[in-house]
Give the backbone structure.
Amino acid sequence: MMRDNRSFRGILQSDDGCIIKVLSNDGRRITFQSAFGLSQHMIRQLKENPEHIVFSERSRIARLGVQITSDPPCIDHLDGDLLVLTQTASAAIPGYPGLDQLGMFFDEGLPVGRMVFCDPDALLTSEEVLAAVDRAELKLPASAAISSDGSIVIAPHRVVCTLREDVDQETFGRILLREDGREMLNRYQLQKKVPHLVIPPGEGVITTCSMYLNEHYVVLQSGFSLGRNLPATVLDPIKTRGICIYLEIINGTRHTIVNPLISARVYGTPQKRTGERRKTSPSGPKGLSLADLKRLQAQLDARPKGTCYFTDRSVAMVDPSQGLKKVEFFANGPKEKCPVSKAQCSTARVDFSTRSRCCHQYATSRIHPDPQQPAGALVLKYFPNLVEHRDIINLVVREKVRALYFFEASCEFGPFLSQEDHSRLQEYHAFGVDVYWICSLNQRLMVHTMRDGKGYFVATDRLADFHKSMLFAFYGSTLPLSPVATERLGKLMDALVAFWGKSIGIVTGGGSGVMEAANTMARQRGILSGANFLDITDQAMTTDVDFCQVFQATCRHSRQKWFEIASFPIFNVGGLGTLEELGITLCNMKLSIIERVPIILFDTEGERDFWNSMRRQIATMVQHQRAPAWINDHLVITDDPAVVIEAYLKQLQLF
C-alpha cells in the first residue's frame, strides 16, 4: 500500500535527497554530496530529458533563508538507482540565521530536497490555464496574470516574514530535523504587513501568496529584474493549498526592487502515469478481499470457543500467496478453562503486571511460522491489546507479518478505539504494517492511512481521493433540520462544489442533525464523506461515510485534533458542543496550529440573529485585549451561500 500522499500527487520525482558526505565548510558556504533515490521511470527521464529535471529545495530550509545550489543532474552521476550530486548551501536572506547557527545541522542524513521531472508534454497553454481555473481545478492568487505563452506572473502578498527573537539553536534543530518541523516553523515565523515589498540590492525577503492545487503543479521560474526565487521551485498538488504559500525572493541586481513579481509555469497531469515511486522492496501479493474476509469470519465463528472469557475467538494466519487455501488457526486463552470469574476477569484483564490474576495467554504468542514462510496476514476478531501488540510487533520485525485485519474495534466498547489503540495504530504504521478494518458501521473494508499526522480508516476504493481531496469540517447541532434548513444546507454544499470543484470532502462528528445531513449530501454529490465518531449516548450515528476514525468517550478532547486535517471550518446552528469546537478552532488559529482562514458561522435555519451575539462577544474580547484583533476580520456570519464564496474569494485573495 502507498504510505504517503506524495504517491497520489501524479508528478514524477525522486525520494527525498539526503546529505551523504560533507565536502567543505568555510562558515559561509557548505559543500556536500546528496543522494536521491530514483524510480526506473525517473532514471529513463534522466537519460533522455535531463534538462527537464529540476532540484526543488526543502521548503523549511528555504524558509530559513538558506539557498542550496546544485550540479545539474545527468546520467554520469547515477550510482545504481541513486543520483549523487554536489550541492552548496549558503545564507541568502539577511535577518535570518546564518550558517554559523544552522551549519551544524548540515550533516549526513539531512533531507535537502528532491529532483522533479517537469514533463514538457504536461505544460499548459494560457487557454488551458484559464479553462482549469474556470473548472475550479486550481485556484491562483488574485494578483496572477496569465501571459500568452501560458506562464503566470504572481505578485506576492504585501507581507514580510520574520522569525521570533526567541528562536535558539536547539529550536532550529527541531525545525530542520523533526517530522513536524515545518508546522513548528509556522509558529515561529511571523508575518508583518507592509505598504510595499522593498528588496535592496543583494538582499532578499520571505513573503507569501495564496494558491490551491489539486492535480496541477506549478514550477517557479528564476529571473533577475523582478526578483529571483530560491530553489524551492516546485509547488506540489495537494500540498500547495493555503493562504501562506511561502516565496523566498532575492534581489541579484544592483538596484532596488519594489513589489517583486514571480514568473511560473503550470503543469497538468501527464497523459502517461508518472507517479511511480522508487521501489525499496519487492511488492507483496494482493491483500484479502472483503468477500474473503467474510468467509474467514464464518470459519472463525464456527470454531469452538476458547478458554478465555474476553477473547474467546481464534486468530487466523493467512499465507497471502495462497489466500484462504492456506489458513492456520490459533486459539486464545490458557490450556484449561480460565479459573477466574467473569467479574474478576473484567478488572484482571487490564492489569498487565506480574500480580495480575489474568494469565494473558493469547493466540499471538503461539504463532511460530516456519523460517522459510513468507510474511503473512494476521486476522483477529478484536483490535489487539497491549500483549497481543507486543507479540505482533515481534512477528513483524522477524518479517512474518505484513498485514493485520480485525473485525471489531473492542469487545467492550463496540466500534470505538481507546487512546492506547490509536497509539498502537501509529506504531503499526511506523513498522510498515498495513492495518485493515472490516467495518461494521458501513459494511466496507477500510484501510488505515496517515494524513497530516492523523490516522484514518478509509474505504479502499476511496484511498486516493482521501489523500487528494481538500476537506471542510462541518459542525452543528444533533437536532433534526427543518425542511428550509435542509434546502439551505444543500445550496451551501452545491456552492462549495461549484467554487472548489469535485476534489473536496467533508468531515463531521458523525452524529445526527446537521452532521447526518451533511454526510448524506456529500455522498449524493460524489464528494468525500467522513466522520470522527465518538462513543456518547446523546446522538445517533450516521454511517454513510467513506472515511472515519472512532474514539471512546475518554478520547473526547484528543479527538478534536483529528479535525485539523480540514482546510476550512463551517459552523452551522448548534449547541454547547458546537460552541466548544468554535473556541478550539479560534484558539488553534491564534496559536498558528491552523491557518487563519474564514470562520463561517452559517445560520442554517435562517434565524438571522443566531450567531450575532458571538460577534459581539469576540469584539468585547478584542476590546479588552483578550483576543487578537484579526479574529474580527475572519468571522463571516451569514445564511447565504453566495456570501460564503465571496468571503473565500476576498479573504484568501484568489483569482
Observations:
- Residues 286 and 646 are 47 Å apart (CA to CA).
- Residues 1-7, 280-284 have pLDDT under 50 and may be disordered.
